[in-house]
Amino acid sequence: MFRINRVLGVQTRVLRRSFSTSLKAFQESKIPPKPQGEIQGKPIKNYYIDEDNNVVIKVKPIERSNETTDKKRRRLLYQSRKRGILESDLILSRFADKYLAEMTEEELDEYDRLLDEMDWDIYYWATKKYDITPLPDRWKDSKVLIKLQELSRNSGKEIMRMPDLNKKEMTMGEKK
Predict the structure, then answer these.
(1) Is the Cα dihedral 151, 156, 161, 167 positive or negative?
(2) pLDDT (mean) for 158-172
(3) Which family does it belong to (predicted)?
């Protein structure tokens, strides 16, 4: 999901962090405003304007109907390790290392849907910081999210590090 703010009649992407110098330069660039239904000359579909006057665009995940279970496990392992945010990479890669090989097809599908969410949302849900990002109803009864929250609690007070990649059972999708 992307958020687009309208700034002085011009639509810009906002990635949930402040780009004050870039924003100031953008505001001063005198770019003519775009029509509400277009970005970069292309019409926007599947969007709405939220209560803060942001344009919210829903991006559908890629359908993978012919994907085998082994390929799905490998893809989910990769997506767990390569999120782009270190905190999410650490929690999700440890989760995948511990649980991915033993997950049922239903749990794999649920985890796949969870990974389609925004990185910071997953992080705040995993650490139960609902005041920052409220937990949507669709995730309240999630078995996968409960396991992720238990792992992120780190009750054993372990020093967390990224799991090694050379485990044959994870790279090949075999059960431990």
Answers:
(1) negative
(2) 61
(3) Belongs to the SDHAF2 family.
